[in-house]
Amino acid sequence: MRQLEAIIFDVDGTLADTEEVHRQAFNQAFKEFELDWNWTPTLYEELLSISGGRERITYYGADLLDEFRSREKFEHYVLEMHQVKSRIYAEMLDDGEVPLRPGVERLLNEIRDSGLSLAIATSSTFTNLKTLLDRNLPQDWMSWFSAIATCDTVSKKKPSPAVYNSALGILKLDPAHAVAVEDTINGCVAATSAGLTTIITTHFFTRHHHFPNASLVVDSLGEGDQPFKVISGDADEHELVDVALLEHLVEQQNELDIPETEDGVRIAIA
Can you give the pTM of this predicted structure? Predict the structure, then answer.
């Protein structure tokens, strides 16, 4: 077995710069519900520490709970608001192009050509995922992925490793043979907690964050004459995230994970 067998991608912020579209959709939904809330870019960056749109609304709107006769009615209100937000988000994708981030389609095609498996692990809904990829990839894109785990199939959201464990279970793969591609601290914690070698591609909302235990942090996957900028980690002189770099990162991580004897001799693991 080769050391690298699969690459598991997050979606929002990783495959495409969707977070600003999500922010605007939230604000439009708040207006429809006659709320004076306004999630500025600075505030939204803070709220990204909470995985899931419903969870962000619940956290931010906690003061509204007293206006409802029960927690259940408040949660139903939040659910309705999030459904409106999801509708607005889909309409915004239809009305304006939200392209994949630089290097994403290139890397997806390279992975497919190499015979490695592709998977998705996201705290977003399958509907949002499908809306995005239907507009950016060929019609048969679902056949590209051997596993798709979303918040529709896994209830615990990142930073829980549950969605990554689910994807690995579908792939029937040990985490030592896979790489996760993420963009947020919660995503990083989820992936590394699942035992995955993790690469981070930052964007506007996460560019100042620190990503503990990530093997590599870059500002993009890199495309053509637009090489990525290394923020932390060793890119082994690569300028694009490609299969060769991912293989290097997995090998490097697995070497670190090999136990040693008291004499400092590494124990070979088949």
Answer: 0.88
